[in-house]
């Protein structure tokens, strides 16, 4: 009986322990905290302030100045309102050679500028130094005509190639004759004008002119031109109109060699003109 009581107590004790084990929840283990490592705060590094070099400071402090104005070239001669004298012709050339040629378009004055002047002007840095003028009485009436010519076509040239000849008619200037690269004009010693030119390798000729005593018109004294397109049948034509018409009624029996030998003889008498600079040239 005593033994049974002991067992009963033991059983009760076991049951009580089981109840306690089931009714109590085990508190979850918290991970152990590692002691924190404290990183020391970085001290702020001060960037040293450097002063700009003195030259830069001075440049910043200097007042801004505008660039000096570009000096304007000498005033361009004004375009004459009308062509009433040789002086107006000279002003017109000065205006053209100074680079204001675009202003001539539509004014009615472009007809006064020779194609030869345009041709030569575009070939030189300073056209005033190459294209000049002379006043010379070639009609014999005591009044000079106006001649525009190129200074020196070749350094050793003994003659002046003429670009334009102006006379007076009804008290106003008139363009009598002009010249260019393929139509070359020269003044001869006897004051006649000699022109030579070509319209191709097989077509060339020359013309001899003389100015009337009033200085208003040119007269053709002789015009000689050739057609050598057929080597076996070269032709020479002669007239007094100055036109190259190649009409059979102008056909001559003169040989090409003799025709041009005569022209060369005239050309040998070409003179060198005393030329002057147009106003507004910008050169001495």
Descriptive account of the structure:
- This protein is an alpha+beta fold and 284 residues long.
- The chain has a domain at 86-267.
- Helix content is 23%, strand content 23%.
- The chain has five helices and ten strands; from the N terminus they run H-H-H-H-E-E-E-E-E-E-E-E-E-E-H.
- The protein has helices spanning 2-23, 54-61, 86-100, 115-121, 256-267; strands at 131-136, 145-150, 162-169, 172-178, 183-187, 193-200, 203-211, 218-227, 235-239, 251-252.
- The chain has a six-stranded antiparallel β-sheet, with helices on one face. It has a four-stranded antiparallel β-sheet with strand order 1-2-3-4, with helices on one face.
- A hairpin with a 5-residue loop joins strand 5 (183-187) and strand 6 (193-200).
- The protein is globular.
- The termini are far apart.
- Residues 1-8, 24-42 and 68-74 have low confidence and may be disordered.
Short description:
With 284 residues, this protein is of the alpha+beta class.
């Amino acid at each position: 009986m005593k033994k049974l009581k002991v067992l009963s107590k033991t059983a009760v004790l076991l049951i009580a322990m089981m109840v306690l084990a089931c009714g109590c929840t085990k508190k979850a283990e918290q991970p152990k905290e590692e002691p924190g490592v404290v990183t020391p705060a970085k001290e702020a590094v001060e960037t040293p302030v450097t002063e700009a070099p003195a030259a830069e400071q001075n440049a910043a402090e200097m007042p801004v100045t505008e660039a000096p104005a570009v000096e304007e070239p000498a005033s361009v001669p004004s375009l004459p309102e009308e062509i009433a004298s040789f002086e107006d012709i000279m002003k017109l050339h000065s205006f053209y050679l100074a680079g204001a040629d675009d202003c001539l378009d539509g004014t009615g004055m472009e007809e006064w500028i020779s194609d030869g002047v345009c041709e030569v002007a575009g070939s030189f840095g300073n056209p005033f130094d190459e294209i000049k003028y002379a006043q010379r009485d070639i009609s014999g009436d005591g009044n000079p005509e106006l001649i525009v010519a190129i200074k020196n076509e070749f350094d050793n040239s003994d003659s002046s190639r003429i670009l334009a000849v102006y006379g007076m008619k009804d008290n106003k200037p008139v363009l009598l004759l002009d010249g260019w690269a393929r139509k070359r004009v020269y003044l001869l010693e006897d004051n006649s004008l000699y022109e030579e030119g070509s319209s191709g390798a097989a077509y060339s000729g020359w013309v001899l002119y003389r100015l009337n005593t009033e200085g208003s018109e040119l007269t053709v004294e002789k015009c000689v031109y050739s057609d050598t397109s057929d080597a076996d049948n070269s032709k020479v034509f002669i007239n007094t109109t100055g036109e190259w018409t190649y009409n059979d009624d102008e056909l001559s029996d003169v040989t090409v060699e003799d025709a041009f030998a005569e022209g060369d003889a005239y050309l040998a008498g070409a003179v060198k003109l005393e030329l002057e600079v147009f106003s507004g040239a910008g050169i001495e």
